[in-house]
Task: inverse folding
């Protein structure tokens, strides 16, 4: 652990695999930039690997003032222990006040191990980060300019704001897709700081025998229109209507967890807390009751149409257009109207 | 060769059934008002340990930290085939975040001879997935998170398939190891009725004291303690005692436990309020729907 260091920088762990930067740390740059500016400190990216210097430019264009680069052949493939050791050492050397990680599988494997080694706090899967003051009523103490780590808890039924006022750095993992990707600025300049990794073969206890990656079949985040179906769609056959409407609008098909669990559609299409967070121009929710877990992934859509035969369905609370009716009746009419107008 | 497994489990509120009454006025969650269940992915971890025991032999120890009521998930573990169960309970554990929880649990796990420590990937009340990796760090052992399948266990080595989100990895390492197990890993077995008949009479000392108190409302403390002690000894003899450890027994350093040991604190808790938006009712007729589509084209929502 390190003490409170108000001059400390804001760090983002720039996760990369096989020379490719992950999207989540880039998404984090816009929020990180805002936090650093509010605190009046520098924003730095930390990148580990073998031959990763070519990523520095991109990290600076996306908003970092500094990039810490640790190159070592032993860091070529991510391993929990080696990466933990390097980040732990860097934290102790530079004492950043905030360290952020994407809540990817790697981020969620690494960050808790770093937190334990550093004896620092960590908040998982944040959906927002802010700077604010925390007041303790007993003793009238005010802790100023802390990192507010905002996250859903209890299955998304509550929103908790977590702070860490004494044992720093303040660390959090941030959910994929919740922060808008910054627009790169090719004119930005930044500083590169090269560091050595104090690691050996002992820090690589795993032997990676095989790795198989598949490209996601669908990237809902990038879609302008998402037509999503829930358990109320009733069957895989009925789900064809969701596909048809999505196709007529040039959009993609989405689904609730219930619809995925029922086998109507593949998990890649899941919207919500355990799926993808989307904010398209138009979101059409069909046969979706509107559980909080689902709303967490779609309520920021610019326009929402809800189709449900239950007038009491909570999804209507977030909808701009409410259609109470049977989807087998309503959807063909929508497809027809779209085909006539476009 | 036999392998000893320690499985960490958690009793969690069933977060699918949270209502307004389950919240205290200060915004904290009133766990007593919620149905408590065995954390789903911890059942997958237990199942994997039992499969290892079925195939290779060895012992399955199940451990939890929580209130005495958490003895229930330990009984459920016994119904499924666990050999030994341990409840870590102490007022000093209250308000522990993941860091102090992993410290306290590590003190308990260190008391065992283990080859494999298993946890569910995450618990449904917090969804943090942090205690597993933090426990591995405290124990100083290798971790394999997001385990989907155990592929091989031989010559002191383990090979496992783990999810990496958009694919999988097959990894191998030396034992001891800590695994966090995902829900896709297996189909947890149901309780065996014979074991259920036997172990429904298994209790932790804290539960026994509460029972004796309830049965002897007028007795003084000494009498209650004597009665409870006799009952505890009897259960132990019959193999029905759920072991109970406190922080003193674990020789835990109190500066790393509970509220003091937790760097993260709650600043604020808000219940989700569904925001009502300005909305239009659309008639489910051709005219109504075509009007809506027309509006969306005019305001450039759809191109």
Result:
């Amino acid at each position: 652990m390190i003490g409170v260091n108000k001059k400390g920088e804001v760090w983002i762990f720039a996760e990369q695999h096989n020379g490719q930067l992950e999207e989540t740390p880039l998404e984090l740059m816009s929020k990180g930039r805002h936090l650093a500016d509010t605190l009046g400190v520098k924003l730095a990216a930390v990148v580990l690997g073998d031959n990763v210097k070519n990523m520095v430019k991109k990290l600076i264009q996306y908003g970092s003032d500094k990039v810490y680069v640790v190159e070592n052949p032993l860091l070529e493939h991510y391993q929990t222990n080696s990466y933990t050791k390097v980040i732990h050492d860097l934290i102790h050397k530079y004492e950043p006040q905030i360290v952020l990680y994407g809540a990817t599988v790697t981020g969620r494997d690494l960050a808790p191990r770093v937190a334990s080694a550093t004896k620092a706090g960590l908040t998982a899967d944040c959906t927002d980060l802010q700077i604010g003051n925390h007041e303790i009523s007993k003793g009238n103490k005010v802790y100023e300019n802390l990192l507010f780590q905002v996250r859903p808890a209890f299955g998304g039924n509550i929103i908790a704001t977590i702070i860490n006022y004494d044992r720093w750095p303040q660390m959090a993992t941030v959910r994929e897709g919740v922060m808008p990707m910054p627009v790169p600025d090719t004119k930005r300049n930044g500083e590169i700081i090269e560091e050595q990794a104090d690691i050996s073969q002992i820090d690589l206890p795993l032997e990676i025998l095989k790795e198989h990656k598949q490209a996601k079949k669908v990237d809902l985040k990038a879609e302008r229109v998402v037509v999503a179906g829930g358990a109320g769609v009733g069957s895989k056959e009925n789900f064809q209507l969701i596909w048809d409407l999505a196709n007529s609008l040039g959009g993609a098909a989405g689904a609730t967890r219930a619809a995925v669990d029922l086998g109507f559609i593949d998990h890649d299409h899941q919207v919500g807390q355990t799926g993808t967070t989307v904010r398209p121009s138009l979101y059409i929710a069909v046969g979706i009751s509107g559980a909080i877990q689902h709303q967490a992934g779609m309520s920021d859509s610019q326009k929402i149409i809800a189709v449900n035969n239950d007038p009491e369905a909570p999804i209507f609370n977030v909808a701009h257009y409410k259609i109470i009716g049977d989807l087998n009746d309503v959807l063909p009419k929508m497809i027809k109207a779209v085909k006539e107008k476009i | 060769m036999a392998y000893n497994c320690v499985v960490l489990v958690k009793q969690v509120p069933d977060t699918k059934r949270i209502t307004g009454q389950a919240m205290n006025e200060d915004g904290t969650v009133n766990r007593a008002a919620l149905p408590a269940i065995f954390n789903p992915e911890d059942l997958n971890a237990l199942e994997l340990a039992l499969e290892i025991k079925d195939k290779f032999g060895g012992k399955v120890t199940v451990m939890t930290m929580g209130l005495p009521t958490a003895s229930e998930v330990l009984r459920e573990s016994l119904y499924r085939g666990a050999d030994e169960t341990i409840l870590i309970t102490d007022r000093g554990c209250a308000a522990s975040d993941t860091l102090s929880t992993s410290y306290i649990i590590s003190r308990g796990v260190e008391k065992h001879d283990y080859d494999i420590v298993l946890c569910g990937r995450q618990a449904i009340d917090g969804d943090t997935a942090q205690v597993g990796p933090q426990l591995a760090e405290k124990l100083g052992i290798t971790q394999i998170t997001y385990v989907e399948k155990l592929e091989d266990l031989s010559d002191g080595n383990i090979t496992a398939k783990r999810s990496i989100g958009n694919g999988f990895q097959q990894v191998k390492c030396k034992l001891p190891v800590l695994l966090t197990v995902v829900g896709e890993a297996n189909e947890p077995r149901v309780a065996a009725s014979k074991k259920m008949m036997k172990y429904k009479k298994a209790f932790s000392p804290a539960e026994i004291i509460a029972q004796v108190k309830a049965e002897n409302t007028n007795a003084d403390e000494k009498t209650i303690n004597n009665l409870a002690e006799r009952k505890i000894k009897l259960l132990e003899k019959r193999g029905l005692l759920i072991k109970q450890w406190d922080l003193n027994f674990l020789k835990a350093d109190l500066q790393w436990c509970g509220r003091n040991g937790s760097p993260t604190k709650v600043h604020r808790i808000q219940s989700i309020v569904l925001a009502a938006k300005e909305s239009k009712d659309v008639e489910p007729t051709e005219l109504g729907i075509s009007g809506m589509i027309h509006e969306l084209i005019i305001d450039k929502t759809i191109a």
